[in-house]
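Example record

The entry below shows one chain as it appears in the dataset: sequence first, then structure tokens.
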Amino acid sequence: MVKLSSAGFDEIIKLAGSFVTENQGVWDHSAWLEFLAKVQKMGVEVSNGMQSNLGELLESMKRFYQATASTAGMEKAMKTIARDSVKFIKQQQGVWGHNEWEAFTQGVRENAVSLTEEATAYLGGILESVRTFYAILPPSSSSSSAQTEKKSVAKPPAKPIKPKTVPKKAEPPKSVAPDDLTVITGIGPALQKKLNQEGIYRFDQLAALTEAEIEKLEGNTIKFPGRIKREDWIGQARRLIHE
């Protein structure tokens, strides 16, 4: 697996934000190759897996950019969001709850842009993509970076949460092809893979999720409280079933 230095992690997120704003949310294959070349010059091995992660990061930023393109000072706003996303991920060590998420979005509203419900959902997508890169930092690097970001006053340790298991759903019959879940806003290739691992392959399975299943998926698999409802995955899935 490719490992990143802490500096490399920071620079990739910054570079991605600049790339999206410079191209105004639209780019061709040549621009994509130039972006990859810049990443390689940073000393990062651009493997197939890394390319997939980078592509998902750019797509998440593009969706946010397009949702807030009319905002004045968009370039500055994207730089702020890229910087604050890195800081947030390090502070939370890649794990956060609803209260931390609310505090983060409030900070974005105060320092960068006013957020619509749609833009807020896309901002969550950016954090998910940034977390992917944090996960490939060397353990010593990620832990030391997080410690330097945290305040000197120690917080009481969080009460350990007993892991919950999402009930596995049966794989679709061989005669039924799985749906492309990435057409649902908020689900990228990485999340689709996670959903598949939980036995979710089709729109009708998403549309039929119960409240209990949603809570377990968000807690154990997606690790982003409130995301399924906020991005209306169930509503989107139901509309796609009837198309």
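Notes for this example: Residues 181-241 form one domain. Confidence is low (pLDDT under 50) at residues 140-170.
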